[in-house]
Please model this.
Amino acid sequence: MPGEDVRTLRVMTYNLRGLRQEVDALVDVVRTARPDVLAVQEPPRRLRGRWQLRRFAARTGMRVAVAGGGARTTALLVAPHRSVHDAHALRLPWRPGLTRRGAATARVDGVRVVVVHLGLRADERARHVALVSGLLAARRDADAPVLVAGDLNERPGGPSWATLLSAAGGLQDAATTAGADHPTYPADAPRVRIDVVLVDARMTVRGARVPDDAPVGVASDHRPLVVEVALPAA
Model:
């Protein structure tokens, strides 16, 4: 079962590459990490996609909170003992020739979680992060700390990072805060970190790590990032 301390939220962001690689290895990586929240990029899609994701969630001891529809290149899985409210997808603007993208969001134990998977083109990333930042501003509640997780397809210090870090009154890069700014891509010989968990100041970062055990190198083309944050006092 994921973390026993209900005041600590363990968040894992992971590009599943459509479950096209070693699914058993993916299951092993997630089960070993025991996340409370799994921010998914590249979930399986098409006709069998939702069924495949539900089956994957069941194998990892989680449930699907957001998938399909406007979420497109993202999904959100949550541990059974965590509360989920206001779960929905955000469809992002699309231009012919590019991948249709979206974002997934929900309040998990009072935390506004947003999952993103940005594109390969800088102009598209700029449009999408502006919309996500606007969503965070519009939905910001005094009692709802914000957490953004995902694959930015951009190196630290890039414009997408800057825009998201300034969103919702200011966010912090959990991996850097915890001294775990390790590369996540490509999985077999990682050179850059393009995967992030960003949290606002109302949550304390207790730890972060990029798993490097054997299944991680073959399960996907990304390594996951796992972060633990302390929830604000109720």
